[in-house]
## 1
Amino acid sequence: MPGDRDFIQILDAALAESARKSGEWLVCRLGCTECCIGPFPITQLDARRLREGLAALESTDPARAARVLERSRETVARGAENEEDPCPVLDPETGACHLYAARPVTCRTFGPPMRWGAEPLGICELNFHGATDEEIAACEVALDVRQLEAGLLDSLERSAGETSVALALLNIPDRSLAST
């Protein structure tokens, strides 16, 4: 059975195809942080990937990793994650994601027109200004990897439920967004 690395390669290939099709309609760039504000649910698979990315960052840039952890602690200490809180992985000065290669599925798929099975995913409101529904649809890429992702999640005890970026990085187990 394919593993997480295969899953991410499939996802990233679909995203690259959608970005290619979208051309200049797609304005997602380094420093644009519109989609990096507020908490959002991530899977335990995303959480594991983020923790692995943080471990790698700790070995190459311990100071940067420490800042990510500090922002995560501050987010959790405030109690319920605020709709206006930036993602703790976001560098507040540059708008770069410190764990970009390990980012969650939501972060990978938000922005360009993608379809997950029968469901369209969110398209950033900054993209496709002036485009018709037909022009947007022509850029869409369908991706149906639910079964693959579900199998990978089963191996991580799905009962743990969803979490958030801050909780995942602090390795706070068995807490869902509803309890933050």
## 2
Amino acid sequence: MAARFNDHVVGRLRDGTRRGLARLGVADADIIESWVPGAFELPLAAKVLAQAGKVDAVICLGTVIRGDTPHFDYVCAEAARGIQQAQLDTGVPVMFGVLTVDTEQQALERAGEGTDNKGDEAAVGAVEMALLVRCLRG
């Protein structure tokens, strides 16, 4: 799941996610990519996808940059709460790959070309959690 708002950063997170998944041996054909309007909409889409039973994990990608109003706080808190609730409700790992930063420069620094890209980190976490959940369920 990827949020279109701030897509100039989210696209870079998506690229990092794809690189990470490829490095871990996940085939392109096994990846479902969907876009939502913004970070606030990520939890619902993630929950619906997880409930569909077609995925081992969901990765939520977004970027929320602090502005002059408290809107930032509400969006960040509800996106985090909703993403956590989606995984608890479904039993499917849902990774929080949402940047919550003060400046655009901070966002771009976290969405670079290397393995320090937060999308790449979310990919690694998703695979780790999917394998763990599968193992725990026997």
